[in-house]
Amino acid sequence: MNHNLNAIEISGIRKFYNKVREVNGAISLTLGQPDCPVPKGIKEEIVRALEENKTVYTPNAGIDSLRREISLYLKERGIKYKEEDICITVGGSEGLYSVISALINPKDKVLIPNPSYPAYENIVKILGGEVINYSLKENFTLDIKEIEKALEENNIKVLVLSFPTNPTGAILSKKDREDLFNLLKDKDIAIITDEIYEALCFEEYYSIAQKEEVLDKVIYVSGFSKMFSMTGLRVGYFCAKEPYMKNIMKVHQYNVSCAPSIAQYGVLYGLKHCKEDVKIMKEEFIRRKDYVVNKLREIGIESVDPKGAFYIFADIRKFNLSSEDFCSKLLYKGKVACVPGTAFGSRGEGFIRISYCYSIEELKKALNRIEIFINSFK
Ligand code: PMP
Predict the structure, then answer these.
(1) The pLDDT of residue 377
(2) CB under 6 Å to ligand 1: residues?
(3) Where are the beta strands (DSSP E) in 43-105?
(4) Which of 111, 231, 251, 334 could form a disulfide with 225 if both were Cys (CB 3.0 to 4.6 A apart)?
């Protein structure tokens, strides 16, 4: 076996999701899967592609028309990657894996936020790299000084950013983008920015990739699992300049050949015609987020108001339980499943992640149960 796997555990998110089945009638607020269906037009386009037998390999980097459309989509957001800088992947997951595989050698140091999406850290570990964590401000936004310090103290090869953030819902401010740019512009470093929740940014969107002067250092990873509610259809992408692109492509090619053909045609349709569906979904998420944040506050649980994605990272420190114990008790006694903050790193201790991509009715039921559970502490 690969010895590096000894340090890897199954995802804490999945662990809790699986536990829900053990508890009859439990409500799960654990997964990152929008509850709305794939937009109708995308479904029809996928069926059309299937009937037209577009079921063969696509080019390794994906169908040209989709790469072109993504280039246009990003341009509208101030990000200037050309069609040839874009490769379609099997979800953002494969994008992350292929990118990190291409960038690091064993023992190379990768600077990763803590807390953050668990894949970054675990991919680096599987590949034999070394994880260095940087902490965030109290409100989960970037603490530039922490990054600066980590860069001074370590020979960092890759910096990972992710906005809007899973599990906190934090976004990048204009000031943080400028500070990051000033810090990184003269550094010899690769910057991976995972922006898979970009379409669910509730305030103005800023990204380090908008700074053209550093675009040759930036590898932008994104996808359509969240934007078009199509987690099972597996389409993502990464953008990179040379020499990154040519090398990441080697991993991507031998790993997956290409992303699913018919789903790529569906996404192409979605980018052209389904903006309204995305807008409606985003408005609905904002409504739910407001409901959950307010209700939590009402029952005495504080959380930073998320500015994107569909998660709330709620503060449970006052209950004097580890986040794992809190979630276990909440599940077995209160019949609601949330994810312990530690599933996202050691600095997630004292927090739980509540996913609000569930109907308002389900959220109301779950929050009422949480209220009863909290009252049992008094
Ligand atoms: N990045 C982040 C931050 C995520 O939360 C996820 C999925 N939860 C992914 C990447 C991967 O998503 P997918 O492979 O479905 O595109």
Answers:
(1) 77
(2) 32, 91-93, 117, 162, 166, 194, 196, 223, 225, 231, 236
(3) 86-89
(4) 231
In whole numbers, what is the pLDDT of the chain averaged over residues? 96
Tens of pLDDT, residue by residue over 57-90, are: 999 999 999 999 999 999 999 999 999 999 999 9
* Ligand 1 atom closest to residue 92's alpha carbon, by position in its atom list: 16
Residue 201 is classified by DSSP as: B
pLDDT per residue over 131-161, tens digit each? 999 999 999 999 999 999 999 999 999 999 9
Ramachandran assignment for 165, one of left (phi > 0), alpha (psi -120 to 50 degrees), beta (any other): beta
Residues 146 and 241 occupy one common structural domain: yes
**Residue 18, pLDDT score:** 81
Atom 7 of ligand 1, residue of closest alpha carbon: 32
CA of 91 relative to ligand 1 center, distance in Å: 7
Q: How far is the CA of 299 from the centre of ligand 1 (A)?
A: 31
pTM: 0.96
Q: Do both 103 and 122 map to the same domain?
A: yes
Name residue, tokens 């503060």: 315
Domain boundary (251, 273, 295) is at: 273
Distance from Cα 53 to the centre of ligand 1, integer Å = 29
Interval 208-238: pLDDT, tens: 999 999 999 999 999 999 999 999 999 999 9
Q: CB-side exposure of 343: number of CA atoms within 13 Å?
A: 26
pLDDT in tens, 319-328: 999 999 999 9
Quote the ligand 1 centre to 63 CA distance (angstroms). 22
Q: Residue 351 belongs to what domain range?
A: 3-37+274-376
Residue 62 and residue 19 in one domain: no
Question: Closest Cα partner for 219 from 242, 247, 239?
Answer: 239
